[in-house]
Design a protein that fits this description.
With about 110 residues, the protein is mainly α. The chain has one domain. A three-stranded mixed sheet has the order 1-2-3.
Length: about 110
């Protein structure tokens, strides 16, 4: 994977991603929702996946404005609290926004 540039215009990246997305869409069925936990701010995932998955492609609204580490920290906190994130369709969402406040530090006993 490191030898292939991750760009929507690169067929060596896009081809396998689209092929597997079609398999996932067929396997999951029409009424399913598919959650993207990767970056929604760039086109590297959204551009190839959206035409295949359409309105079934969702992402956590809380991800807007967050980087990789912040998204991971947010998911960790929600899992520990037993809370689900709020999923919205990628197709109609605002995918860029202001950076949210930093997450509160975890106390040592929270690990």
């Amino acid at each position: 994977m490191l030898t292939v540039p991750i760009e929507p215009s690169n067929p060596r990246y896009r081809g396998p991603l689209e092929r597997e997305a079609r398999k996932l869409a067929d396997w999951a069925g029409e009424g399913s929702e598919i959650v993207l936990l990767g970056s929604i701010a760039t086109t590297k995932y959204v551009e190839p996946l959206l035409p295949i998955l359409g309105d079934r492609l969702l992402f956590p609204a809380e991800f807007v404005g967050r980087g990789d580490m912040s998204r991971g920290g947010l998911m960790l906190r929600h899992v520990r609290a037993g809370m689900q994130l709020h999923y919205i369709p990628v197709a109609t969402a605002v995918r860029h926004g202001p950076r949210p406040a930093k997450l509160p530090k975890l106390r040592r006993r929270d690990f």
